[in-house]
Write a structure and sequence with these properties.
alpha+beta; 2 domains; five-stranded mixed beta sheet; four-stranded antiparallel beta sheet; 8 helices; flat
C-alpha cells in the first residue's frame, strides 16, 4: 500500500482534538410512544439489562418463566451458561433480581441510540430528509464503514467539484434502519431508490452509524431497540417475517403476570467481516491510480516520534487497520447482525480517530448524472391562506398559495387549487391552475387571487392546493388543505 508523508507542527494537538465521544442521551418526550404516534404509553420493558439469550436473541427462561440476567463477573456458587458466564439469581415468584445481586447486572448502554424513543413523526421527517438528499444526488455510494454518501457535482469554469455528504445523523440512520426493516427499501414503493449493497447489510450499517462511536453494539441492544421502535408489536410486518414470541413472567405496574414478548427473526442473516469490508467503499476509489476494493486511508504517526511529529496518510486494508485481520463472529443470526452493527461503529471510530486533513483526502469519483431532480413544497402552515369565515356573496375576498423549490435543480410544473363543499360541489370558477417554470432551488413563487362564494346557503368549503411536477423527488409535501366557513345573512340552510 502507498503512503503520503505530511508534517504538522501542531500534530500532537491535532490528534488530541480528533478523539471524541458522542454519547448524549436523548430523553423520551412526555407522552411519546415507542416509535408510535406520540400519544400511546410506552410498553413496560423493565430494566434493560444484558440477558441470557439463545442464538435468535430470545431470552432463555428459568423453569418459573423468568428472564435470567448475565452477571458482570463471577461470584461464588453462581450458575453458569455453557460458555462459562455467571447467571444472576432471580426470585422465582416475582422474577426480580435476588437480594444482594443488583450490582452484578449489566445495563445496556444505548448512548445516542436512545433517540430511538422518538415518536413516528420525528422518524418520518428525518427519513424524508434522507430520501430527498439521496434522490437529488448525482451519485450514491458507501464509505469505508458502509455509511450512505450523497455526492453532487458542481460545474465550475476550470474544473468540476464533487461535494460529498455522509449520512451520519443518529436519527436519520435510525430512520433508515427502521424503514429498511419494515419495507426493504427507501423512497416510494413505486419508485424505490437504487442503493448499493444488500438490504439487511444496509440496515446493520445504518444502526452502526447511529451508535456511539466509542460504545458497543451487542445482541441485547439490537433486541431491545426493536421493541423500543415498535418493530415487534402486533400488526407490524418486517422483511424478516413473523417474529418469535414467548410468554415471560415479570412485574408490570406492581402486578406479577405473564407477558408476551416478541423478537425479530434474524435466522436468515449471515455475516462475514472480511467479505463485508472487502466490498467497501463502494465503489472503490483508493488509491487514485488503481482503486482496490477493501482499501481506505487514514492518518497515522511516524515512529519513533520526531519533533515536530511527522504524520503520514496510510492506505491499507480496512480489516487490517481497524481489526488486525481478526475475523470476528461468524455464526450469523442476530449475533452476526450485531457484529455487523458493531463493525460499522468500530470503523467509524477508527476514521474519526485518524482523520485525513482537509484537502489531503483522496477525492471520491463522481460524474454528473445529467438527471433533473428537486423537492417542491407547500407549507402546511402558510402555503395555502384562505379566510377562516366569510359571508356568502362578499366581494374582494382573497386566497394565496405559495410554493418553495428546495432544490437543487430548477423546477417547472403546475399548481392546482380546488374549492368544494362537503357534498363535493365545486365553487364556480374552480379549480384554478397556475403554471411555473425556471423556479431555481431556494426560490419561492406565490399567487394571490380574488374569489366570491355565493351558493345561496351556508356551507363549509374545503380548499386544496396541489403541485404536479415531473421531476419532484418528494411528492409527500406537495399538497395542503384549508377550510372556510361560509355564512348567509338571512337564514338559509342547504336547499
Amino acid at each position: 500500500m502507498k503512503t503520503r508523508m505530511l508534517v504538522f507542527a501542531l500534530a500532537t494537538a491535532l490528534m488530541g482534538l480528533i478523539a471524541f465521544s458522542a454519547g448524549a442521551l436523548a430523553a423520551k418526550p412526555p407522552g411519546a410512544g415507542n416509535g408510535g404516534d406520540g400519544t400511546a404509553d410506552p410498553p413496560d420493558l423493565g430494566d434493560l439489562i444484558i440477558l441470557y439469550r439463545d442464538e435468535y436473541g430470545v431470552p432463555i427462561l428459568t423453569v418459573d418463566g423468568c428472564q435470567q440476567p448475565i452477571a458482570a463477573g463471577p461470584f461464588d456458587g453462581c450458575e453458569t451458561t455453557p460458555d462459562g458466564k455467571c447467571l444472576v439469581p432471580v426470585d422465582p415468584v416475582t422474577c426480580a433480581v435476588g437480594a444482594g445481586f443488583d450490582s452484578y447486572t449489566q445495563e445496556v448502554d444505548f448512548g445516542r441510540i436512545n433517540e430511538a424513543r422518538s415518536p413516528d413523526d420525528v422518524f418520518e421527517a428525518q427519513l424524508e430528509d434522507v430520501v430527498v438528499k439521496l434522490a437529488t444526488a448525482d451519485c450514491i455510494s458507501l464509505d469505508p464503514a458502509g455509511r450512505l454518501v450523497a455526492s453532487t457535482v458542481l460545474t465550475g469554469e476550470e474544473e468540476d467539484q464533487v461535494l460529498t455528504s455522509a449520512i451520519d445523523s443518529p436519527l436519520q440512520n435510525l430512520a433508515i434502519y427502521r424503514q429498511l426493516l419494515m419495507t426493504g427499501y427507501l423512497g416510494s414503493e413505486s419508485a424505490p431508490l437504487v442503493l448499493p449493497g444488500i438490504t439487511l447489510d444496509m440496515a446493520a450499517r445504518a444502526l452502526g452509524a447511529a451508535a456511539d462511536k466509542t460504545g458497543e453494539a451487542n445482541v441485547d441492544l439490537v433486541a431491545y431497540l426493536n421493541q423500543i421502535m415498535g418493530l415487534t408489536e402486533t400488526g407490524v410486518t418486517t422483511v424478516l417475517g413473523p417474529p418469535i414470541c414467548i410468554d415471560v413472567k415479570e412485574e408490570v405496574m406492581g402486578v406479577v403476570q405473564m407477558v408476551e414478548k416478541c423478537f425479530l427473526d434474524y435466522g436468515s442473516y449471515g455475516y462475514d467481516r472480511m467479505a463485508n469490508f472487502a466490498s467497501l467503499p463502494d465503489p472503490a476509489y483508493i488509491p487514485t491510480e488503481d482503486p482496490e476494493p477493501g482499501v481506505f486511508e487514514y492518518l497515522t504517526e511516524v515512529l519513533p516520534l520526531t519533533d515536530p511529529v511527522t504524520f503520514y496518510i496510510d492506505q491499507d486494508l480496512i480489516t487490517t487497520a481497524a481489526f488486525a485481520d481478526e475475523p470476528g463472529y461468524l455464526e450469523g443470526n442476530i449475533g452476526g447482525f450485531a457484529q455487523a452493527v458493531d463493525d460499522t461503529r468500530a470503523v467509524i471510530e477508527f476514521m474519526h480517530s485518524h482523520p485525513i486533513p482537509l484537502d489531503y483526502a483522496t477525492e471520491l469519483v463522481c460524474e454528473a448524472s445529467g438527471e433533473t431532480g428537486y423537492d417542491l413544497s407547500i407549507s402546511d402552515v402558510s402555503g395555502l391562506q384562505v379566510p377562516a369565515r366569510m359571508v356568502a356573496g362578499t366581494e374582494g375576498r382573497e386566497f394565496t398559495v405559495a410554493i418553495t423549490n428546495l432544490g437543487p435543480d430548477t423546477a417547472e410544473g403546475t399548481v392546482t387549487v380546488t374549492a368544494v363543499t362537503p357534498d363535493n360541489v365545486s365553487i364556480p370558477g374552480f379549480p384554478r391552475e397556475y403554471l411555473f417554470s425556471d423556479l431555481a432551488g431556494g426560490e419561492n413563487e406565490s399567487w394571490t387571487e380574488s374569489f366570491v362564494i355565493d351558493l345561496g346557503y351556508a356551507t363549509t368549503v374545503t380548499w386544496t392546493a396541489t403541485i404536479v411536477a415531473e421531476f419532484d423527488v418528494n411528492p409527500g409535501n406537495n399538497s395542503v388543505s384549508a377550510s372556510t366557513v361560509v355564512k348567509v345573512t338571512s337564514g338559509g340552510g342547504h336547499p
